[in-house]
């Protein structure tokens, strides 16, 4: 049982390659973590493929190996109701722009989604389990050697100490796939919210081709945000960095995309791992 003097130790599980590789390493004794915490941005917000993988493969695998894999919802402090990120963005009268929407110059706007829906959700659970400023929890984040620039220890709560076990072991993205397959598991899809403005153009392109309904839903979300911006007399914002609506920026049936070498993505390591 966790006591005030027993430090809490948990791995932040994002549902992607890095987290899944870490789970397999923990199961095989190569990583000293027995608790994995997944902050779920919402069943209507997380990419459906990630949730399918989680339920079909990750949770049964964790259970089979005696590892605790807990899915945490964001619960509103006042009402105790679950609030998803998509609900937050679409609710009537909302002016909330929590996601990193792209401005006219293509740059992402400031966001609060990662803090509200990932960092605080995991942080609250660690506190509940006994972590405090004087007895901080160790939190593993799944950043691999290919994305070393994302290792950013500033983004954590005062009752946490971050470590990067994959990075420390020199594990690359390709190694993650090998580790997952070595356990007889398929490699999960990339994890993120399906409407995340950090998506690369190729990701939007693949979505338009392979998941046209989801792509259309993202376009409709962008339309909704801009109808609200019109009412407020503000400039339009986009889910892609080309200063035009997603529907036009990613044309249907076209295979060549504008050249894009921008290294977009969440720089915190709390999303897309
Ligand atoms: S995946 Fe994107 S939209 Fe979702 S919480 Fe992370 S930064 Fe925000």
What does this structure look like?
This protein has nine helices and five strands; from the N terminus they run βαβαβααββααααα. With 273 residues, it is α/β, with parallel strands linked by helices. Strands 3-2-1-4-5 form a five-stranded parallel beta sheet, with helices on both faces. α1 packs across α6 (173-182) and α7 crosses α8. It starts with 8 loop residues before the first strand and ends in a 24-residue tail after the last helix. 38% of the residues are buried. The mean pLDDT is 91. The site of iron/sulfur cluster has 13 residues, from α4.
Q: What can be said about this structure in brief?
A:
The protein is α/β, with parallel strands linked by helices and 273 residues long. The chain has nine helices and five strands, in the order βαβαβααββααααα.
Assign an overall shape: globular
- pLDDT averaged residue by residue: 91
Helix percent reads 25-40%
| Cα gyration radius (Å) | 19 Å
Q: Which structural class do the helices and strands define? A: alpha/beta
Question: What is the rounded distance between the termini?
Answer: 29 Å
Count of helix runs: 9
Number of strands: 5
Q: Please mark out the parts with pLDDT under 50 across 5 or more consecutive residues, or reply none.
A: none
**Beta-strand percent range:** 5-15%
SSE string, helix = H, strand = E? EHEHEHHEEHHHHH
Give the spatial strand order of the biggest sheet. Answer: 3-2-1-4-5
């Amino acid at each position: 049982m966790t006591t005030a003097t027993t430090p809490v130790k948990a791995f932040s599980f994002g549902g992607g390659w890095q987290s899944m590789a870490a789970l397999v390493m923990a199961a095989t004794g190569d990583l000293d973590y027995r608790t994995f915490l997944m902050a779920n941005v919402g069943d209507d917000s997380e990419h459906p493929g990630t949730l399918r993988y989680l339920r079909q493969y990750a949770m049964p695998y964790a259970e089979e190996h005696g590892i605790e894999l807990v899915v945490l919802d964001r619960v509103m402090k006042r009402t105790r109701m679950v609030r998803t990120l998509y609900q937050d963005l679409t609710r009537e009268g909302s002016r909330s722009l929590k996601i990193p929407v792209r401005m006219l110059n293509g740059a992402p706007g400031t966001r609060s989604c990662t803090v509200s829906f990932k960092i605080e959700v995991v942080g609250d659970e660690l506190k509940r389990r006994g972590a405090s400023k004087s007895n901080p929890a160790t939190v593993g984040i799944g950043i691999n050697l290919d994305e070393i620039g994302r290792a950013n220890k500033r983004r954590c709560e005062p009752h946490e100490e971050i470590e990067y076990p994959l990075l420390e072991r020199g594990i690359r993205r390709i190694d993650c796939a090998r580790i997952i397959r070595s356990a007889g598991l398929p490699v999960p899809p990339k994890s993120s919210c399906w409407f995340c403005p950090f998506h690369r153009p190729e990701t939007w392109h693949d979505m338009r081709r392979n998941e046209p309904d989801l792509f259309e839903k993202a376009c409709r979300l962008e339309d909704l945000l801009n109808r609200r911006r019109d009412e407020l007399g503000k400039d339009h914002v986009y889910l892609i960095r080309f200063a035009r609506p997603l529907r036009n920026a990613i044309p249907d049936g076209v295979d060549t995309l504008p050249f894009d070498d921008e290294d977009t993505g969440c720089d915190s390591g709390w999303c897309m791992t």
